[in-house]
User: Fold this.
Amino acid sequence: MLKDIIKKEIVETITSAKFVFTFLLCAALILLSVYTGLSSYKADQKEYSTAVGLNKRNLESQANYQSLAGLGTKINRPPQVLGAIASGVNEAVGRVASVNVAYDPNLIDSKYESNPVFSVFGALDLTYIVKIVLSLFAILFTYDAIVGEKERGTLKLMLSNKIPRDKLILGKVIGGFISLLIPLIIPLILSLLIIMVYPGIALAGADWIRLLLMFVMFFLYLSVFFTLGILVSSRTNKSSTSFLVLLFIWVTFVTVIPKLSIVLAARLNPIPSVHEITAKKDAFLQQIQGGAQKKVMDWIKENTPKTKEDQATFQDKMKKFLEDYQQDATSQIDANNAALERDYQLKKNSQVRLAVNMSRISPASALTFSTMSLARTGLDEHERFLASIRAYKPVWTKWANAKMMRNLNFGLGTTPETKVVLDDMPQHTFEPETLGPSLARTIPDFGLMVFLIIIFFAGAYASFLKYDVR
Amino acid sequence: MLEAINLTKTYEDGQLALDHLNLKVEPGEIFCMFGANGAGKTTTINLFLNFIPPTSGTALIEGIDVAKEPLHSKEFVSFVSENVTLYGNFTAYQNIDFFTKLAGKRNLTKADYARALESVGLQKDAFDLRTKTYSKGMRQKLGLAIAVIKGAPNILLDEPTSGLDPKSGQEFLNLLIKMRDEGNSVFMSTHDIFRAKLIADRVGFMKKGKLVMLKTRADLEGEDLTELYIQYMEEREA
Ligand SMILES: Nc1ncnc2c1ncn2[C@@H]1O[C@H](COP(=O)(O)OP(=O)(O)OP(=O)(O)O)[C@@H](O)[C@H]1O
Ligand SMILES: [Mg+2]
Assistant:
């Protein structure tokens, strides 16, 4: 009997115009988003290697270490292949950071910066499609699951038979879910095929695990809306009411809660503005620079040789002094900046964390954050990357300063103009996050969705047992 | 056999929809219930099907208390709803197949379905059409076929003739007579006095939840049922 209900539910759904429409649209959107995601990843990759090569050539072409230190080296953010599925903050955060002796490095030149209009629309990645479009389909498939049968009189007709209500709701849920999965799973399998055959894209084993876990999150997310639809459908007496209620909840989940939690977090946990921090950094820089001139003058006054013969040793001594002084000043500035930055980041992170956690009560946010984590395109990975650049900065500056000072030329012709040599330049390295921590971060989201599914399903089940079928 | 003992229903809003109904529909009997809109006819049927719990009293199907053993009692009853639309995306065959299986009959063939559909007068060329293209009367017939094929000894019909054309109405009456002659108990709520008089073994008038008149076929011999109905409705109003 359960089998009959499941079968009826599936056949009824897949022979409807609604299903055909949904299936085609799902397939088109999913395949399109995966395809464009992959091709934009390929483009990013090309851009990345070009930028890396350009930077190298640029450094090599510097006339001396002084200009090299001033110009600095550029660190480019490598693209993430799973960003094709969940672009996360990829488009919003900068792609390149300049590391030089003077400034604190920061990632700039994001895609949105170069093309702000994109930020209005957001990325059309698979996560977005699932979050917005497919969740709507889940509602469309379920809003009249129970109340529609009542309106057609078929609920009474079914229940005039020896069929327990729990079996009926179970059959409807299983059948309905299978019919929702069909338009989802077929395009998803096709998109996996696209990923496999797309030229130049090779996913590592762990990436496949990440991808499959993302699909699990998609599946849970849609189950949340599916069970919610059944729940609302078994608590209303008109399908139009059911649809409106569901639409309202959908809007709340998808846009209101995420946006509201950002506003709320800023209110509850205010942080100093970026300008304040910059002003503090500049003040310290000026203080150091102001003192520098006097210190150098004093040193020269004290150490100026009496005779012409000492000139050569003096020059060496001065080089040594200047190098030490420069190193000292830079490390002071670095330390001060780092402290300010750390403090600011700490405050900012706590605000962000508050916003993220508040918004996470919405399954849409939970989906966004979990897939971002899994794709390594989330805020955490961004912070880690930035931290790796900030850690690299003092290392590089030390090297650049040393090179610069040792090769200083006071125009006396004793030291020949040196061409820059980059062989011993320290390289920036970044280890992308391993699966463990990414996974750990998605556990709350996973838990929330499972929790909502259980609550909604139990609610639907209980409601239907008492549902007024007339 | 259908039996109501002091069957009473007061809705949550205090509306007394059925007031101590005592009634027995014997095997081989057609009982027709008349009454103005809102008199309590549908409420009675809903109580027999346990769609709503009675406030007091008992509804019995084949002696089974429907409130206590709802599932068991439903083995013995077929139901024709007043407003069944069925599954519009399904053909008549698909609809009847689904409900027949729900009724627990698993080994019927397409030929059996065709026979049931023919017996209610549905045109053959419509069997394979999606029922969303059906007229009201065609849907009514399909609903009837679904009840017929279940073959339960008790049949509850809520205004079944309202959408039928004269010929179909006549065929429908014949069908009910056939079912009665096979020993089934038929309870039908209707506004169609003319047709009901042709087949009813007994009729009842219901007014504001009360059964105010009960007459047998013999009582009605030579009486104008329409006159009687109007008379009853007005008389008690005063
Ligand atoms: N869910 C409900 N809540 C409150 N009152 C109800 C409910 N359902 C029906 N009623 C009331 O119970 C009374 C009987 O209704 P019922 O549907 O049984 O009438 P009926 O005889 O079938 O009428 P009709 O000929 O129009 O079909 C009416 O007064 C109606 O308003
Ligand atoms: Mg009625």
